[in-house]
Amino acid sequence: MKNLYVLFVFLGFYFLADAQQCGLNCGHKLFFQELENKHTSSNYKSASNSQVLFPQQATSVLGGRSVLFIRGVDPSTHTWQSNDTEISTLYTELDNYVRKTSYNQAWIDTWDVTPIYNFSTNGNTSYTFMSDELAALALAGGYDINDYNVVYYTYASNTDLNGAGALGIGNGMNGSMWMPSSLLKYPSGVIHETFHAFGTEHANDWEGGSVMFPGSLTGGHDPYYFMGSQGDAGLNSDIPAYFKYWLGWLSTDNIILQDEKPTSCSTQRIYKTSLINTYDSSRKYSVQLGNDLWLSYEPDNNNTQIVKKGVLLHYIPNPSGNLCRSYILDPLPESITIRPPGIGSNYDPVIDFWDAALELGDEVNWMGTSIRIVNTGGTGDDKWVDIEFCDCLVETGDSDNDGVCDADDICAGFDDNIDSDSDNIPDGCDTCPNSPTNDSDGNNICDNIDCFGASAESFEYTPSTTVNGNGGNGFSGIWSADIANGNIAITSGSLSNDIISGSGNKLNIELMDEVATKGISRDLDIGFIQGETVWLSVLINAINRSDGGLWIRPNGSQNIAIGKRWGTNFSIDNNGSSITMLENQTYWLVAKYELKNDETIVSLWINPSTNFTNSVPDATKTTGAISGINSIFIGAERWGNGHYEIDELSLSCEAPNGILDCNLQVGQNCDDGNPDTFNDIYDTSCNCIGTQSTIFLSKIMLEGFMQTNGELTQESKDLDLIPLQQPFNTAPWNYAGTETLASIPADMVDWVLIHTRDANGNITGTQAALLYKNGDIRTVNESRVIKFALPSTEAKHISVHHKSHLAVVTEASGFIDGSDFVIANIVENPEQAGDFIPNLDFTLDAVALGIEQVKFMQGTRCAISGDFDGNGIINNLDYNVWEQNNSAVYYYLNQDADGNGIVNNLDYNLWDINKSKVGNQMIQN
Fold first, then answer.
1. CA angle at residue 698 from 695 to 704, to 5 degrees?
2. In sequence order, what are the residues at sequence separation of 6 or more whose Cβ sits closer than 8 angstroms to the Cβ of residue 205?
3. What does pTM read for this prediction?
4. How far apart are CA 285 and CA 272, in angstroms?
5. What residues have CB less than 8 Å from 791, skipping those under 6 apart?
6. DSSP 3-state of 829
7. If exposure means fewest CB atoms within 10 Å of the residue's CB, which of 320, 486, 548, 659 is most exposed?
8. Quick one: which of 592, 578, 597, 598 has its CA closest to 621?
9. Which residues on adjacent β-strands are paired with residue 544?
10. How far apart are CA 168 and CA 424, in angstroms?
11. Tell me: the pLDDT tens digits for 262-311?
12. Contact 274/298 with Cβ under 8 angstroms?
């Protein structure tokens, strides 16, 4: 055994949010062939009845666990992204968490860490291939994976975990876990996957609509912070009592067997099991009711948003199977419809579960048994609850003999158990027994035979980070955005591919190493219902493809989402296609949803031909029936710096058309193949033509930054003060653009802001750009060619702004016409732009509009220093700005007029000599 890390600090638990995490159900036979064969268990029976107690896992997780931590990197594509400190911290937190949740009955005894092995995927992204490679390298280094209970495969390579962010599988005795090395900084997520390796599944929720049960499964979202939750509790979460029993941490003596429909009412006392310090083997900690319900007492948890804390009902769907599964039921369905404050949109499927617990005085019926909370008491680890169980049929009767107590009868006189469309209205009282939404538009046609039409969204809004427009057809309300720590915006330009073309603007979603999903959602005016076939179409482009998923989710449901899963491939949820998403390539995704009464069939095509309706789809998935599609969610998952563009989203009962016949295309969007045009459409001759963009090369020098060698100072860059994101998002500019740099270019001096303006000086377009030491202005892509998707009529003038200098504006529009000067050559040969003289050169005569708008010095003209508040006038207000921080050292501030990172009298002197200068009326705020 090598590299044993031993540290002891009490921490806890966290879960990877929204990733397609896996338990045993998505595992495989890799090294432990006995995983599917080794599970056996004795049956335990109550002494007083014939009820069978749920089995425990055959290989209990008790005593010291041995862990092997194998590390590998493919140096041809990746670098290792972790360090020994992170691994040491992970060991400490995993060991303490296992000790805490097992009541010190299990712990991490051996923690061996291999060196970082170099290996090659050779183009094989399978994690089984990667595991074989690393296992062989470990064996050669003296580590035999068969000597350990759990083997971690941590890698930096192009490995794809079948769409998962991380993956764990095991049976208690042996298990494996796979994860990118970049995730080691999130130990609680690793702990989550370790528990999969121990043999547990997710603690899921069962959303029953207007009834407690049955309903649809909403996995991976658990507000009570059990296995599978979103991790808001961080390392202070726990796992369900049923999981503790499964793993052997609660014994059979801790469980009460309670018959359904008892001959007389029975009261049972149980104690809380989560977040306790001391385990008492003589206490009863849970009740098993009948053959599929488990009750636990959870009066304490770390979610402050929980409305009720008490007894939870866990439905166990297959207690004799090989999986530890538990689904929380909601006894108060549809009681909460508004997301609690501070809760992200990833919780939308389960917002109703914040009051799922039963408290004192609450009562609910389950399969003919009434469950009533009659008493509570105790403090700390000694908190207890008394639960009364009665036969509700004996108490209230069953007049229509359908097995449903009269107190719970929905349709008196008919069988409540017959509900063909699962709308919670028994067929005997349902005017549209095959339509879950009945006749929602009131036209006397049941919705299952009444298709409502289409919804289309092209994101035709003004470019902005506020995605709240009411555009599009067939949508209601505005887009609801979850953009904390992320960038979601409408940006200029549209997406197109060989078959369909967008117009106007597009949706831009960008993550910056986020720890949660970022996206927007919106309701449909009239949804689509069970019995219909719905077609979803969307254009997608990846500027930067991160590891995390990119999803279009009908009804916010990941189960039927289309997009890119974790890794590289397009997919329906985790049903992957063979098509890899490449960066900077626009894809047309078309999905077909067959909303049948008993199942939902999803088919996905990527870049289909115009005649695709009968062709073989690139991916398919069949899942449980859903009531319909009433909303749409667009979002990206962490981890990584994902950056995506979305355009031309539509939903319809009809399959989307390909390119129309020529005589039907007049006015339709197209792509003329010229990157320097916009609003491309077919004309009356069926030619695709576009409007010439405003294109120019620009140059400006700054008085305060001028050096004796004729170049601008780079002291701010040398001091690492220049921000990576555009700095004009504050007053007076208030520009919400998302221009961002990965690193500061070698010759960059600072940021500038460019406005296009109409003849009256009104701003028609804005970009943040880079200023170089020779005065060149470049885009964030370091191109000298600056483009605006505007005709010259909307760009009569160009103004350039800097945080500490008086802005300047052009004399006339002749400098920016796309056909003038050298611009035509640039359009044809943009890579040769470096050979051309700027046509907007503010260092020359007759370029700046107005009198004394630039200053002549050292043989050139410069923008005038001292406008610290950016209002276009240099006066005492600018002095006040300087006075506020007149001794700041090494800060990026407006009043640093000479760009050396220090605010002092030298900056004051620059202001003082210019304190009566007034900029052109256009740039005054």
1. 155
2. 217, 218, 219, 221, 222, 327, 328, 330, 349, 350, 353, 356
3. 0.52
4. 6
5. 691, 692, 694
6. coil
7. 320
8. 592
9. 643
10. 37
11. 888 899 999 999 889 899 999 999 999 988 899 999 998 777 778 899 99
12. yes
